[in-house]
Amino acid sequence: MPAVTADTMRAVDRVAMDAFELHLLQMMENAGRALGDIALTELGMRPRSAVVLAGAGGNGGGGLSALRHLHNRGMDVSIVLDRSPSELQRAGRRKLDTLLRSRVELISSPRTAKQRIQEADIVIDALVGYGLEGELRAPTKALVELANEHARAVLALAVPTGVHATSGTSSTPSIRPIATVTLAFPKTGLATPDAQPGKLYLADIGIPRAVFQVAGLDTAPYPYTDRGWTVLDAPDTRAREGAHRA
Questions:
Q1: Are 245 and 215 in contact (CB under 8 A)?
Q2: Are strands 122-126 and 105-107 parallel, antiparallel or unpaired?
Q3: What is the pLDDT along the chain (246 residues), one digit of tens a residue?
Q4: According to DSSP H, which parts of 42-109 are helical?
């Protein structure tokens, strides 16, 4: 499979939703299930507690989905948002509402957020995915600093927050995870020295190969194992992207 830029990944998402009627909630759910499974089984640890740092968009919704799966398996979990709940996009807000109705703790105090990040066995970075443009802003920047300074282990979703998915250039600061779970395709930026994604996983979120073909990408068969993900040494940035038509 080729490594893709952020613009190409946006095109794939548009085709999936507009032409193939895949709902964003479905893709969030698939991303969250894979992320939760990897957190529990693949990192050489047995986490009993987790905190998700969630942004307003699809990446935040995927992280919230993962937290629900971890909560369902008996983990002590809590949520830290980088903005007020009312600012979340609709799909992410639905994921948040499900967790709140399940009495999962939503942390609003910076002091409490620091304490939970320090105490958690694992912190899930779901603040900003492949949509990063420019430098991080407050309060997202402050949460990245907290995680880098105080977290025992960070697992990033899609792209470590602060890393540009296409170029791999990093803002100051950017998340330094022990592992990253990227989705559907490797991203070109994750192969660069600045990205530092840790152990790199590629997870299936249920997008049919026909979507990639409509988007103009010539792909090989899925490389996923029967668990729905595979480990990448590094994305092959030499692989050429097709000229997408989305």
A1: yes
A2: unpaired
A3: 678 999 999 999 999 999 999 999 999 999 999 999 999 988 888 899 999 999 999 999 999 999 999 999 999 999 999 999 999 999 999 999 999 999 999 999 999 999 999 999 999 999 998 888 888 988 999 999 999 999 999 999 999 999 999 999 988 899 999 999 999 989 999 988 889 999 999 999 999 888 988 888 876 666 777 788 999 875 544 333 333 333
A4: 58-72, 90-101
**Domain boundaries, given as residue ranges, for the chain:** 6-232
Q: pTM for the whole thing?
A: 0.91
d(CA 78, CA 64): 10
Sequence-distant (6+) residues with CB within 8 A of 121 are: 45, 46, 47, 48, 49, 50, 152, 153
- Homologous superfamily (CATH) of 6-232 is YjeF N-terminal domain (3.40.50.10260)
CA distances from 74 to 46, 49, 104 (A): 12, 9, 12
Read off the tokens for 30. Answer: 């698939």
Rg (the chain; Cα; Å): 17
Decide if 203 contacts 209 (C-beta within 8 A). no
167-168-172-173 Cα dihedral, nearest 10 degrees: 150
